[in-house]
Amino acid sequence: MFSKACEYGIKASTYIALQSLEGKRVSLKEIASEIDSPVAFTAKILHQLAKNDILESVKGPYGGFQIQKERIDAIKLADIVYAIDGDSIYKGCALGFNECNAKQPCPLHDKFVGIRDELKHMLENTSLYELASGLEVGLTYLKR
């Protein structure tokens, strides 16, 4: 459903949020290791997230990535998805056809519209805090 970059972006943001709640800043290498992603690919994703004000990048010997505690609940999953994948998840065809809309629907178009609307609602109403606190109590895992 999401691109691989977006999946890693969600995992990285969640891990950074969890560490930020504990007052910690985390390094690129630590994040890449924790989410099981190549370091260079992770750096590119983190750059996109920082550019879109999802997280902060602090340079220097005590640098790393963090999210201000007071912002963690305000950041929604939709913000992260948009920063990495844009809004294509809300517009693309369920079957991947180039032309698919109400006037020229694919066989799944009418069914997929409802699913897409539910997905959008879930992404816009799920905070990064919810994801991080789920990790904190062991409800989810970053690595497979």
Automatic annotation (TrEMBL):
InterPro entries: Tscrpt_reg_Rrf2, WH-like_DNA-bd_sf, WH_DNA-bd_sf. Gene3D superfamilies: Winged helix-like DNA-binding domain superfamily/Winged helix DNA-binding domain. SUPFAM superfamilies: Winged helix' DNA-binding domain. Transmembrane segments: none annotated. It holds the Pfam family Rrf2. NCBIfam families: rrf2_super. PANTHER family: HTH-TYPE TRANSCRIPTIONAL REGULATOR YWGB-RELATED, WINGED HELIX-TURN-HELIX TRANSCRIPTIONAL REGULATOR, RRF2 FAMILY. This is RrF2 family transcriptional regulator. It comes from Christiangramia antarctica.
